[in-house]
Amino acid sequence: MKLLAIIILCILFLTTITLAAPEDAPLTPQLTSANEQDSITQPLLPKMTAEEVRLLIKDRKYVTEQGIYGETEEEQEIYLKQSKISAAMQVFLVSKGMSLDETKTFELMELINVLETSVPKTIELENKINKKSKFARFLTGGNAKAAKEFRIEYQKRKEPIETWRQVIAEEEDMEIKSLLLEQFENIDVEQERQEQLAQKELTSKGIIGWIWK
User: Fold this and answer.
1) Is 68 helix (H, G, I), strand (E, B) or coil?
2) CA 149 from centroid of its chain's CA atoms
3) Pick from 110, 88, 114, 85: which is nearest to 5 by CA?
């Protein structure tokens, strides 16, 4: 099961890069040599070097930018910031090869899934919050329903993000650890911004919204 999970992750990860990248795009480093591919006695995915990890991060960044989500520049910027984290997690799993145990691998893959499904939802809900007109806000206050759903969604990411920070912090290769942790920069600022937005929306009552809020 562990082998199958790693194979699926890498096929999806590397196929996406191959399909999206033009001829001049950065190429993902070869994970195995020709001799290793011919030998069933060697690991399918040997642990990667820091340089290979750096190239893989660059490739993942390119793929993310090609499939960018969001209608406005602001939404797209939010998507890119948050997607850097799940990308770093995927790179970490690939870089470790077969050195992680099966249970840990599936736990970490599930955390990636939580993050990737949450990002588009939070962007959509934030868009709903921002689309409420000034006049409607003056009368009824903020969009409390969207704000509550928004808070639930972004709070789902807190535990996975912290878990992954701890996992990456245990990486023995200091250069690889530094490369991966760089992808987490500014996420605390983004999380705080989202909390403030939700709080402001929930406390805004308007001139008549206080009746039912």
Assistant:
1) coil
2) 19
3) 110
Q: Which pLDDT does position 97 carry in this prediction?
A: 67
Task: Please indicate, yes or no, whether the overall pTM of this predicted structure exceeds 0.85.
Answer: no
Q: What is the pLDDT of residues 25-35, one digit of tens each?
A: 444 433 333 34
CA distance 213 to 203: 9
> How many angstroms separate the CA atoms of 95 and 22, rounded?
24
Would you state the pLDDT for residue 196? 93
User: What is the C-alpha radius of gyration for the chain, rounded to an integer number of angstroms?
Assistant: 21
Q: Which two tokens stand for residue 209?
A: 């919204």
Per-residue DSSP letter, 208: T
Q: Work out the burial of residue 155: count CB atoms within 10 Å of its CB; fewer than 13 is exposed, 13-18 middle, 19 or more buried.
A: middle
> What's the token pair of residue 21?
């990248």
Return the structure tokens found at 96: 């470790």
Q: Give the rounded distance of the alpha carbon of 201 from its chain centre.
A: 25
Delimit the domains of the chain by residue range: 2-18+58-211
How many C-beta atoms lie closer than 10 Å to residue 116's C-beta?
A: 16
CA angle at residue 190 from 139 to 50, to 5 degrees?
Answer: 160
Collect the ranges in the chain with pLDDT lower than 50: 2-8, 11-44
